[in-house]
Amino acid sequence: GAVVSQHPSRVICKSGTSVKIECRSLDFQATTMFWYRQFPKQSLMLMATSNEGSKATYEQGVEKDKFLINHASLTLSTLTVTSAHPEDSSFYICSARDGTKVGNEQFFGPGTRLTVL
Amino acid sequence: DQQVKQNSPSLSVQEGRISILNCDYTNSMFDYFLWYKKYPAEGPTFLISISSIKDKNEDGRFTVFLNKSAKHLSLHIVPSQPGDSAVYFCAASRSGGSNYKLTFGKGTLLTVNP
Questions:
Q1: By CB count within 10 A, which of A33, A44, A70, B80 is most buried?
Q2: pLDDT the model gives residue B99
Q3: How distant, in Å, are the alpha carbons of A17, A83, B29, B103 from that of B97?
Q4: Are A91 and A79 in contact, with CB atoms under 8 Å apart?
Q5: Counting beta carbons within 10 angstroms of the beta carbon of residue B94, is it exposed (0 to 12), middle (13 to 18) or buried (19 or more)?
């Protein structure tokens, strides 16, 4: 149980284009989903928290107009990197929390490697 | 201001021995703690958690100990296996609240030698 998928696993795009990453909870309803970014040899940096049907809450320093997050259903959240630049190249990971459970466990997707040329 | 600290960037142990990974936190509002294991280019895998109402939680080879007065927790892996080699992240959160955010440490790279 508690499986989270992410698509695509890797993407290469040209500077200035937009890229959409999907995050799905496969066997539970995710009332809350999270988007993280990880730089090489560093910890996970929370970018934003999204609750189903409401606007995402962005962490300080994260541009909400650049990183568009949509959590339209209890099993799907999307992150769109708009007008991507080489400095946006990173490993993006989503996680989901099962709203029927008491604990704060988040279950993570396998991540998406974004390379902007 | 780093609220969750893993002061050992790496740890090397022999197969069959005990691995002890440490984590300290500074925010006294944290009351729920988790350990995750991560391989390169993959998402973290949940291992074990503990609520602040307990001081120990055990699941198979993994045991987490919590010392609230010292704001310290540790993950014990016994016996260690080569497949345990990975980066281990400690995370802390406040239960309840509106967003269930996790605050992660920087991770400890565990290497288990055959």
A1: A33
A2: 66
A3: 37, 34, 11, 14
A4: no
A5: middle
User: In terms of C-beta density within 10 A (0-12 exposed, 13-18 middle, 19 or more buried), how is residue A86 classed?
Assistant: exposed
Contact between residue B26 and residue B41 where contact means Cβ atoms under 8 Å apart: no
With cut-offs at 50, 70 and 90, classify the pLDDT of residue A43. Answer: confident
Q: Which residues contact A21 (CB under 8 A, 6 or more apart)?
A: A6, A7, A8, A11, A78, A79, A80, A81, A92, A94, A112, A114
Per-residue model confidence as pLDDT tens digits over A5-28 = 999 999 999 999 999 999 999 988
Count of residues in chain A: 117
Say how many CB pairs under 8 Å bridge A and B. 57
Please report residues of A whose CB lies closer than 8 A to that of B105: 43
Is A74 touching B (CB cutoff 8 A)? no
Test the A interface: residue of B102, B103, B108 with most A CBs within 10 Å: B102
Reported as a single tens digit per residue, the pLDDT across B80-111 is 999 999 999 999 998 766 568 899 999 999 99
Judge whether B62 is closer than 8 Å to chain A, CB to CB: no
Place of tokens 């987490």: B64
What would the pLDDT profile of B35-45 be if each residue is shown by its tens digit?
999 998 889 99
Question: What CA–CA distance (Å, rounded) separates A33 from A97?
Answer: 6
Q: Kindly give, in sequence order, each residue whose CB lies less than 8 Å from that of residue A101, ignoring residues fewer than 6 positions away.
A: none
